[in-house]
Each structure stands twice: as C-alpha cells, then as structure tokens.
Amino acid sequence: RKEVEQDPGPFNVPEGATVAFNCTYSNSASQSFFWYRQDCRKEPKLLMSVYSSGNEDGRFTAQLNRASQYISLLIRDSKLSDSATYLCVVGTGRRALTFGSGTRLQVQP
Amino acid sequence: DADVTQTPRNRITKTGKRIMLECSQTKGHDRMYWYRQDPGLGLRLIYYSFDVKDINKGEISDGYSVSRQAQAKFSLSLESAIPNQTALYFCATSDSRLAGTNWAGELFFGEGSRLTVL
Fold first, then answer.
1. β-strand B31-38 against B42-51: which pairing, if any?
2. Whole-angstrom Cα Rg for chain B
3. pLDDT tens digits for B46-88?
4. Do A49 and B102 touch (CB under 8 A)?
5. Pairing of strands A19-25, A4-6
6. Do the beta carbons of residue B45 and residue B31 sit within 8 Å?
7. Contact A6, A101 (CB under 8 A)
8. Which residues of B touch A99 (CB under 8 A)?
9. How many CB atoms lie within 10 A of CB A10?
10. Substitution target from A6, A24, A43, A50 for chain B, most B beta carbons within 10 A
11. CA distances from A80 to A12, A17, A84, A108, B81 (A)
12. Is the pLDDT of residue A84 over 60?
C-alpha cells in the first residue's frame, strides 16, 4: 500500500463548479499535511497547509480527519486557472515529506 | 533569477554514462533534497541533506549518489545511467528555522531537470 494515495483523476468540471479531492495516508504517526499545486511541466508549489481544525484560504478549504486518516481539498467557484495537478503531501516524524501521485483537475470553459 | 537553480534543464544521454545534475540556491536554506518524478508515481525522494555534513538516503537512493559542496549547492550523480532512470528530477530546499512542528518545512523547488537515458 502506498504511504499517500490519491485518485489520479482527471476531474473535468465546468467553470464555477465546486470540486473536492480526497487523499488517504497510511501512517497514523504522520503529523503534518499539505496540498501542493503543480502546473504542467512545472515545479510543485505549496498551495496550503492542512490544520487539524480545518482551514480556508479564499476559495480553497482543507480538512483533516485523523481518525480515518484522510485529507480533503475543496475548491469553490472553479476558475480556468485552477487547472493543474494537486499533490497531497504528508510529513511523518523526522523524515522528508512524502508526496502522493497527484490528482489532475481540468476546468472547462 | 530563480531562487533554486538546476542545471542542466534537459539532458539526453546513453546507458552507462556518468551524469551529474547540479542544484544551487540563493534562499539561504540549510536543507536540500533531490526528488524524481515519474508519471503515475508522484515525487519520490532520492537523497536529502540537513546541512553540509549531513546526508541521508531517501526511498530510492540505489544507483544515485550526492554531494553537498556548500550550503548552497547539492549535486546528484548517476554513476552509470540506465534507461529506468529516465525521469524529471527536482531539487528542493527548506529552512529548518521555519519548520515548526512540521519537520521538513515548506519545500521550494527548482524548475526541474529532464533526463532521458537511451
């Protein structure tokens, strides 16, 4: 089983739609969680951290469910510019971050 | 200019050749990493370095070696390249002072080095 698993997609949604991605992690000792965004053929960049209480940044909302070991990302009012691959990233103890394989989002006009 | 610079950006080589990918950063970060990315597999950690004297293997270090020549420079070598090392390679940095409860801290990536081994 992969340490961090994501649905690869692609998710094809119209502009203005709400879309949600989930990610599961296998190590119950993991303590830090992030979503990174990667545009085609570009480097990944931090989108947002994920806190236990959930957090919001504009149209983006991240949630963490420790009991079920999953993380979610909700995007409201999707824009064409949101088209990208979203990487779920988990930190466990004194180790470098572990990346999921990513979920591809394509927002259609 | 990019804060994290990788050279070369693209390289085509033959099986058995020695290849070096270089990474330099102007961010003043103490931690540096090498990841490779393959379709469907995401980013996998090859090696990471906490500081100049501290080098650690990642999950896929076989066939690779690294050198941390200075705080700002971290190079990745393939001693004898093979076709399944064809991938997109990313260097990344992070700052231990900003890590807080997150051990690794936010990663800042270079633009990537696309390596093809024929």
1. antiparallel
2. 14
3. 999 988 999 999 989 999 999 999 999 999 999 999 999 999 9
4. yes
5. antiparallel
6. no
7. yes
8. 35, 42-44
9. 12
10. A43
11. 11, 11, 9, 7, 40
12. yes
Q: CB B102 to CB A87 under 8 A? A: no
Which residue in this structure is represented by tokens 């994920």? A50
Q: Please give the Cα distance from B14 to A37 (Å, whole number).
A: 33
pLDDT digits (tens, 9 = 90+) for A28-83: 999 889 999 999 989 999 999 998 888 999 999 999 999 999 999 999 999 999 99
**Which chain B residues touch A98 with a CB distance below 8 Å?**
45
Distance between CA atoms of residues B99 and A32, nearest Å: 10
